[in-house]
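Entry for magnesium ion complex. Fields follow.
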Amino acid sequence: MRLILVGPPGAGKGTQAVHLAKYFKIPHISTGDIFRANLKNGTELGKQAQTFMDRGELVPDSVTNEMVKDRLGNADVANGFLLDGFPRNTNQAQVLDQILADKKMPLDAVLELKIDNAQIIKRLSGRRTCQECGAPSHIEFEKPKVAGVCDKCQGALYQREDDKEEVLTRRLDIYSEQTMPIIKYYEKFGLLKNISALGDVTEITDKAIAALK
Ligand code: AP5
Ligand code: MG
Ligand code: ZN
């Protein structure tokens, strides 16, 4: 299964990706998680990404595309992959097409998670993210067993800088301006499936699997 998850900030891409990656036995590749891991480790890539992430804007394609190309060079993508947060504009989609064409690894599907803005704000204002593995949880909707501690790896939970209201508004605008066009792009190729991102996490996972089969 070679899959892209697309949807606005807070749609639940990261949450669903964990379950879908496990179900299909494929690596979960989140460009946001890779940038945040680099930021945490103080790498050059992290420094390049930080100013853009703090403003809720896209990291330049030159940086992002190279990073993804590099990641898709790993042997673990032989049985497929789940891309979360990439591509995010038409140029990235075209570059990805070229990378996959060169590797003779065509995409199987693009799954869109649909959600309204009011729900997005509820989700992101209560989100907590694991400092170690990047897994999201929620102080009300997806409570960790122990407050402040990641269920998956026991890492410490923190609140993402870009979940603050001003930055969040910018992220939503960028999504409509730059990312929505790729939905049409994939629809043209007959790859698009969409499901509602509202409801229980497990319900949504079941709907996603049904849509992908
Ligand atoms: P990125 O990390 O990709 O952020 P995003 O797209 O804005 O998406 P989020 O991670 O905020 O939301 P999500 O859909 O994963 O939701 P989640 O599962 O956490 O990107 C961050 C930044 O990095 C970008 O702004 C940009 O600067 C840069 N970047 C990344 N990729 C790039 C690219 N390709 N090009 C250029 N720049 C790039 O869920 C949200 C919350 O809701 C959680 O608290 C969760 O517990 C809760 N929740 C989930 N599902 C449910 C449910 N069913 N019911 C109730 N609560 C739920
Ligand atoms: Mg995410
Ligand atoms: Zn963790």
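NOTE: The domain at 2-116+173-212 is CATH 3.40.50.300 (Rossmann fold).
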